[in-house]
Amino acid sequence: MILFLTHAPEETRRLGEELADRLAPGDVVALRGPLGSGKTQFVLGACARLGVETRAGSPTFTIVNEYAGGRLPVAHVDLYRIAAPRELAELGLEEYFGGDGVCFVEWAERAEPLLPPGRYDVTFAHGRRDDERRVSVSLPHGSGR
């Protein structure tokens, strides 16, 4: 696990950019943390580095945003509004795992049983100051990345 401390949204986006350099087709990035802790900023940075031309945004109301046109297709999933396991089944979340793109899953704890092994786990927490974020990144086991 690698730990980071950021002090501005731009720094959190830069962490997303750095992770994007490691991503390959089929990768899943599970994002956990409270509201306002930086999950979406992280994904915005990753999308920018992957060359997504559309302005990526939080899919809180649409649940899934898909972006093509970059180095890799991106699925950005936000499970904040998912309340029951049956809703996950209806969503078909697993279809976004292991394909030719990458999948970022915000509020990943709501889909824990469905998440594939060998994923990236990124956990966000508020720091001591209002502008601080603690970010921990766990690389996939045995990835060599």
Walk me through what this model shows.
The protein is globular, with a radius of gyration of 14 Å. The mean pLDDT is 88. It has a single domain, classed as Rossmann fold (3-Layer(aba) Sandwich). 21% of the residues lie in helices and 26% in strands. By secondary structure, the protein is an alpha/beta fold. The chain has a 7-stranded mixed sheet.
Annotate the secondary structure layout:
Layout: E1 2-6, H1 9-20, E2 28-32, H2 39-50, E3 64-67, E4 74-78, H3 85-91, E5 102-106, E6 120-126, E7 133-138
Parallel strand pairs: 2-5, 2-6, 4-5
Antiparallel strand pairs: 1-7, 3-4, 6-7
Helix pairs in contact: 1-2
Primary descriptors:
single chain; 145 residues; alpha/beta; Rossmann fold; 7-stranded mixed beta sheet; 3 helices; 7 strands; 26% strand; globular
